[in-house]
Write a structure and sequence with these properties.
Length: about 200
């Protein structure tokens, strides 16, 4: 990964964050409660959005520089935050630990999204909520093709990010129950509120 990526990430995201993203993040994160795991917390932009119904946030990211950058948001937040260097595909937590798992703009980058979802299920308590905000492959065939063409170069420049990830398909294949789905910017961005119900899903 380019060492410069964490430095420029917030700068390039600022125009989007100032407008619609701020509301999208805040509406999604308002649903978090109890013990929360945030995957790929990056520079910590979600941390000020957690409300008092959250007991504690455990924020993981494999990138040391990103974790360091999140210190300022840890101080601004209302809830206790623990930062841990870790990857979504190998979560250093016991089974059935978390009430909510949050991932925003992360599934585009994780090397093995299916393994990451299995890990999320393992560490989630039955009934846990999984809250995602992601950019994905669009339905429009022309623009989907453009995303495919751009992805190899985009991945090199943007820290492994795939423009063409079918994250919603991974969620459905993993048998998570989708409670609410919304799309933004003509389907480039989505939010998904899912529930992990191991007993229901086995039937
Ligand atoms: C595009 S940034 C998003 C950061 C933040 N969540 C946000 O909403 O702005 C993607 C983040 O995912 C992290 N990441 C990459 N691979 C990961 C993995 N395998 N497990 C967890 N996080 C990962 C990166 O280090 C980076 O901080």
């Amino acid at each position: 990964m380019g060492k410069w990526f964490p430095t420029v990430y917030d700068f390039f995201m600022k125009p989007l964050e100032k407008h619609r993203f701020k509301d999208i993040r805040s509406n999604l994160i308002a649903k978090a409660k109890g013990r929360v795991l945030e995957i790929g917390s990056g520079s910590g932009i979600n941390l000020p959005h957690y409300q008092h119904c959250v007991e504690q946030v455990t924020a993981i990211d494999p990138n040391e520089q990103m974790l360091q950058r999140s210190a300022k948001f840890v101080r601004q937040g209302k809830v206790q935050v623990q930062l841990i260097k870790a990857e979504a595909e190998k979560l250093p937590f016991a089974d059935n630990t978390f009430d909510t798992v949050v991932a925003t703009l992360v599934f585009c980058t994780v090397a093995d999204p299916q393994k990451a979802i299995l890990e999320i299920k393992r560490v989630s308590k039955p009934g846990a909520r999984i809250l995602l905000f992601e950019h994905v492959k669009v339905h429009h065939p022309f623009w989907a093709k453009i995303q495919d063409i751009l992805t190899p170069a985009w991945k090199k420049v943007c820290d492994g990010c795939h423009l063409n990830r079918n994250t919603l398909d991974y969620i459905k294949q993993a048998d998570l129950s989708v409670l609410e789905f919304k799309n933004y910017y003509k389907g480039i961005f989505i939010t998904v509120d899912c529930s992990y119900q191991p007993e229901v899903n086995k039937k």
